[in-house]
Amino acid sequence: MCEICGKCFKSKNFLRSHRKTHTEQKTYICEMCGKGFPLRQRLKEHTRVHTKERPYVCKIQYHSSKAYNVSKKLLDTQSV
Ligand SMILES: [Zn+2]
Ligand SMILES: [Zn+2]
Asked: Which residue has the higher pLDDT, 36 or 63?
């Protein structure tokens, strides 16, 4: 099955030549990173990666505070 458009093919050779049509015509280009996509839907899905990204949120800080809560909980259960 073609993972790009979901078409099914009886032979692997058909699938291979079909995939080429996708890789050769990357008509939808991401304006932010320059990646090319054969389908507009793919590009839409991809641009979400950029729009959802929040560079000002520190992931490490978030995780460490979470870890702190967990260790605190563990300490509480241990003291009881
Ligand atoms: Zn396809
Ligand atoms: Zn991009």
From this structure: 36
